[in-house]
Write a structure and sequence with these properties.
The complex is a heterotrimer of chains A (about 300), B (about 325) and C (about 325). Chain A contains twelve helices and no strands. By secondary structure, chain A is mainly α. In chain B, the strands form two sheets. An eight-stranded mixed β-sheet of chain B has the order 6-7-8-3-9-10-12-11, with helices on both faces. In chain B, strands 2-1-4-5 form a four-stranded antiparallel β-sheet, covered by helices on one side. Chains in contact: A-B, A-C, B-C.
Amino acid sequence: MTIKSNMIATGDLFPSEPRRGRVATFVRRHPTIVAGGGILFLMVLIAVFAQWIATIDPDKIAPIKRNREPTAEFWFGTDMLGRDLFSRVVYGARVSLLVGFAVAVCATFLGLVTGLAAGAYRRLDMVIMRLMDGLMSVPPILLAIALMAAVGGSVFNVILAISIAEFPRMSRLVRGLVLSIREQAYIDGAIASGSSMPKIIVKHILPNTLGPIMVQATYICSAAMITEAALSFIGAGTPPSIPSWGGIMNEGRMLWQIKPYIILFPAVFLSLTVLAVNLLGDGLRDALDPRAASRI
Amino acid sequence: MPILNVSELRTHFRGERGPVRAVENVSFTLESGETIAIVGESGSGKSVTSLSIMRLLAGGRARSSGRIEFLGRDILSLGEAEMRKIRGNEIGMIFQEPMTSLNPVLTIGRQIAETLILHQHLSRAQARARAIEMLRLVDIPAAEQRIDEYPHQLSGGMRQRVMIAMALACEPKLLIADEPTTALDVTIQAQVLELMADLQKRTGTAIILITHDLGVVADVADRVIVMYAGRTVEEATTKDLFLHPLHPYTRGLLATIAKLGSSLDDNAASRLTEIPGQVPSLHESIPGCAFASRCPLVTDLCRHTAPSFEAVEPDHKVACHHVERRLQA
Amino acid sequence: MTMETPVLELRNLQKHYFLRPDFWGRPTATVHAMDDVSLSLKRGETLSIVGESGCGKSTLGKTIVRLQDPTGGEFLLNGERADTLQGAALKAFRARVQIVFQDPFSSLNPRMSVRETLAEPLVNFGLAASRADIDAKIATLLDMVGLPRDATNRYPHQFSGGQRQRIAIARALAPNPDVIVCDEAVSALDVSVKAQIVNLLGDIQKETGLALIFISHDLAIVEHLTHRVAVMYLGHVVEEGARREIFGAAAHPYTRALISAVPNPTVEEKKPRILLKGDVPSPLAPPSGCRFHTRCAFATDRCRAEVPRLRKIGGDHAVACHYDFSADGVLIQHAH
């Protein structure tokens, strides 16, 4: 018996890629997560260590040093009360991030509870969804302004107001997810295995909704930061005693034609933070997309 | 001259964990008016082969090498503009799921007419008349009314007929049918297969039929190519393949399928013959025969050296080191 | 002669879906998914339900595992009414009747390990006393379905289609049920894997005396593994009988056409195919009389007007057709 030669052309049509470490692979695959996460992490550091980063007490009024242009002493200049803008912007990160994260958590929680209930129990569905329709028929910013007018300005109330304005979106998303997951055969399998409805919600439905919910939460976070800034800008948000980006912009409004930097610096920080959160959300969406996950 | 001559076609995908070798060295020729079936299980590379011929694989993630000669032109070296002139005009294609391959917001008549206007440069009126003619050809009742309906208004069988009408509207030299009847019920499948055979007789179109169903193959194919893990393991005329399969995989496949009439045959085995094990992952580079891990005849030679795909008889090729043993037996 | 109580008995079971409610919530359309289905299943027996899409076979399967409630008729498990059970009694029923679905990719929760998936029925039905007990029972189940014991901590995506279907079968076997409904359980699998699963189901039935309802459109597989067959068309059972009666001496024109339409993988001389015209009519407006009359070559005025009842034509063979046919399918003119 002769051994037949192997005539098959071999070798791969794709050049083998250089072996990278885990970190390098992650960066290459998810650049938006890395960029967004990086900027956001930087903002969090600024907010947490504001005390040490800020050069001057942000509330210190110095009438003689009013309306200074940016210098070595006042990096971002001073406002019309002579307060150091750099320090105020640094402290302002605290309010923005606190409101953004807290609203994301609160709205997600409210949205999860209502959405799961509406998706799982048909009787509640009508009531909850009509309620959400009602809330969503008012633009979130108007709803937040109305709520703030009713309860008065404090950071807690800002979080509450924006959460109420934002959570119907999450509720709808969760309900939609529940309805589509309910159609999966493994839910029928769980029913046949004797699981009760609450158990099915917690063990089978909830874990499979987490990906899209996380993505939506990041969008709520960025929307909340913008809404907070808007509320503070029109004076319906955090009290003026607490430095916030919207508040600083409000204070700089009257001088914006001659001293545009007063508005510029907090605006850049706000945009950058919102951009970072959105990048993170987009990156998560791509990474968690089941179609992307099934890529060979 | 053959219509299609595929030689040493290889298609790889860029995977997250290295290349996926979906098609490794597939060669075959197809004559005018002939039906060749490519059979295999999932992951055998049968669909990727057809998509490679149509050049329908996304550029960045997939790469093909080898030669695909269609009427003397090398498809792999054509520009995208030239390729568009071939697709839907000289090569027609039918997919498994007619619902997703038809545009839901256009009437079926419009969809058939579009290809005719694009490729055959017919006027709107001419294209519509030809579309009605095509619908009649595929046995759609009341074609004049049906032509203005949307895909969702038709049953699954009707939609597949529309797909066939669309694929054949420009009188292609070659029709690629990728699991055309898999989503259909058996009685509808019988209608559609009958229709395809009938149309082929009339138009002389060559057909590549991609399927996993050996029953369909036995009914309609002139020749069969059996694929396993991206490689061709056997090629023969349909009759030869079913009566004298040579490759252990082909023999296993034929033995494993349940055949109608088993309850009337007292000698029929109570168990189906199994092919033990699993299809190997396409991520791994397999140095030897792809079937070695499941083959009853396996030797060390099979594990280390890939067998070449050679003709052992005229019109019967097989890739197995032990084919002599088979022939002697 | 003692009559053995059937494990499962369906009496005139009916399932209609009510669609498109008007302003007052009253349905304006009704899907006649399953009508007047009476069947019975003995211990250790396999009854196959065959037919094309829309014939009601999956509705039948979902109804008898109580994933949906019938709109008429009744069914009994071991001689006791099961279609009206609620609460604890329903839960006890679920342990007795299990189901394996078609798609092994959607029938397992992607976020639950094999251990969690198999522990679920054991815990819910109170069949395991301790962690160690659960582990021991899971090991036995994995042995039964031919999976390695180290599979417990892996997740569905780490398995092939055939292996996932083994996990789904193990989940169905966990409460040691009397009946398993296999709803197209091997249809999505590759041929070489299909044989493995079909053999596995046969082995398990021999070992445990389990009764199987095998819902499938694949007649060759059905013929291979079943004891009895019920053929459905548009919600009606048109023919029912022992395997040899159905595949060797089919009496209903639809059964004959269905069997003849199956492409057989052989190049030997074949019988001419009976081609049915047209499509299955919509179950929203099923035809009057015999539901098959719109596609039947032998249809008469009587077929269009009168619904044929299922009548016995042999020891274990019944057909719902007004007419008789000779062995080679020629109409014998006498009406019942």
